[in-house]
Structure formats: structure tokens, C-alpha cells
Amino acid sequence: MRVRSVLVANRGEIAIRVMRAAADLGLRSVAVHAEDDSRSLHVRVADRAVALRGRGSAAYLDVEQLVAAARDHGCEAVHPGYGFLSESAAFAQRCSESGLTFVGPTPATLALLGDKTAARQLAERLGVPVMAGSGGPVSLEEARAFLGRLGPGAAMVIKAVAGGGGRGMRVVRAAAELDSAYERCRSEARASFGVDTVYVERLMERARHVEVQVAGDGTGRVVHLWERECSLQRRHQKLIEVAPSPGLPAAVRESLLTAALRMAAELRYQSLGTFEFLVEGGAQGDAGFVFIEANPRLQVEHTVTEAVTGVDLVQVQLQLASGRTLEQLGLSSPPPVRGFALQARINMESMQPDGSAKPEGGVISAF
The whole model's pTM is what? Predict the structure, then answer.
């Protein structure tokens, strides 16, 4: 379907980013806003703005309102930005049923990658290394047994099956910590994602966190746009993103890129996505790596990849949604990398009654 007008189902910085990319392509943008966001900047940047019933984030999570707004105002496509409904298979499916193009992966891909244990199983089937862990959700007793099998001095991570953004994730180093960590993970996962199931993996100490940016046109053709590193984190939330990963051995880089492309090709990946890995080991090419998860959407940190490749990733998303192929976009092969780019985040936190800090959101500064 040719896209001439796109509804941006988001607010703030990412909504503006999508609208500017759309304008550069000659596309019309339609903004939506909650009742308490009527004076927000993204409302003024769009060609047209539509008021939603409700206040706060709930308005941006109302699938039926968003679909109706897109159809009523002549949009062919819906761009979810990041956060909110960007990884919702149900939203993507509802768009498809309504004759709208969802600017992102297919509902089937969103559903599979939205389940981290299913993504692990895909990696294993394709011969991509994964961390020792459970094959699916675990009970408290199953988590206790897994920790016991790891042996003295080892630790594990409890993760929400549908998690992301550092929520629903706890490191456990001793059996005495397990009960509390397990319940906290389930509680956070339930509050953030509506699903409280968790799984476990062995903790890789002193790991580097490297992610590969990919794009696909839905035909089975995929391309990487190199990698980013986000090893510097606080409470499992990224603070610094660097592209490309500094000092990454060439053999390790090639292995990560190949693994990401293998998984993306198997899925006949459509749109943008990021495949994330942990890297452990020496600096002479003998490092090992494991796949940890895939994010089937535009990432906050996409800007550092744009800076070193010269490729506007949001424009790529919109053009792929319009039916263009990677070859037509000049992306039959990876673009050359020039220099380094760094993004720094200031993460917002709220103090809890017990004195702990809970991650909330973020303000991003790019340098």
C-alpha cells in the first residue's frame, strides 16, 4: 500500500522525530493527544491533531480510539514510535484488520519476539548461542532448583517473559534472596506488561552488552546497519550508547552480525529491529557471546546508528511500510561506518517507601 498520510500513535520526542521524517518524505502526519497533552509540542508539529478521550498514558493505549482516528482522518499507516503499543501484536493485528499499515514488524513477529523464552528457542534452533537458563516460565521452586544447579559462587537473573526497559529483572546471588526477588519481578512485570510470568538465566559477570541494528523488507532479505554498545547501565537501564562498539574484536563483531541476520532472515523480518547480545571474554577475538533478546521496533538509541551511517532509520521504516525493498532503498549491503557517535541518557527515578529507586522514564541527550 502506498502511504501518503501517517498517524503517529505516540507523543513527545519520538512523535516529533517521526513527523519530521514523514515531512522529509512528503508525507502528511496526524498527531493524537490526550486531554492533558493538548498544548504539547508534538501537537503543533503535526499537519493535523486529533484529541483522544482520556488523560495520561491510558489515552495512548486505547487501540480502538487510535484506529478510529487513523481511519477518520484518511491515514494509510500508523507509526507507534517506541514505548506504548510499539511492540503490541494485538495493535498491529487490529491495524491490519482495519486496512491500515502498521509501521513495524508483522503481528506474528511481534508475538514471537515479545515472548523472550520463545525468542531464546528460535536462537537455539538456529544455532545461535544462548545463556544457560530455563526453556520457559518457571515457578519459585523451579527457580530455586536452577540456582542450586549453578554451583558455588554462581548467580542468576530472574527476568520477566514479556519484560523490557529494565523492569521485571533481578539478580540473585544467594538462595536467601530468591523469594523476595521472585515476587518483586512478578509484581513489576504484572504492573508494567500485564503478564507476571518470569524465567531465569545464569548471570554473565562483567559482560559487554552489544546490539545489532537490522532492517528487513519482508521478503527474507535483511541487512545489518552495524552494532551499538550499551554496557554502561544503571539498574539494568542504558545510560551510554556508542556506535560502533569500541574495541570489539573483528571476529566477534562478524559473529554477532551473522547471528542477528540469521534470526532476522528466518523471521522474514519486516521493518527495523534490534538483536541484543552479551559478550564475555578476551580482547583478542576469543570472546564468547550469547543472544539475550530482540526488540522489534525503533529503539531510543537509533540516532547513534544514523550518525555513523548517514541513514535515516525512521525514513527507512516508513518507506519499507510503503512497500519499498531494501534494494530500492540502496540497502542491499551495509552502509559504510564513519567515526563514532555517543548518546547519553539522564534516567528519571522515583523514590520508593523502602528507600529504593524505581526507574520511570528518561530524558535523552545526544553528543
Answer: 0.89
Question: What confidence tens digit (pLDDT) does each residue in 68-124 have?
Answer: 999 999 999 999 999 899 999 999 999 999 999 999 999 999 999 999 899 999 999
Q: Does residue 345 carry a catalytic annotation? A: no
Q: Which residues of 43-60 are buried (b: 16+ CB within 10 A; e: fewer)?
A: bebbeebbbbeeeeeebb
Dist CA 6 CA 46 (whole Å): 10
Residue among 71, 297, 324, 338 flagged as catalytic: 297
Class of domain 5-103: alpha beta
Q: How far apart are CA 17 and CA 184, in angstroms?
A: 35
Whole-number Å distance between alpha carbons of 352 and 74: 45
Question: Can you say whether the dihedral through the CA atoms of 109, 254, 242, 164 is positive or negative?
Answer: positive
User: pLDDT tens digits for 37-65?
Assistant: 999 999 999 999 999 999 999 999 999 99
| CATH homologous superfamily of 205-348 | ATP-grasp fold, B domain (3.30.470.20)
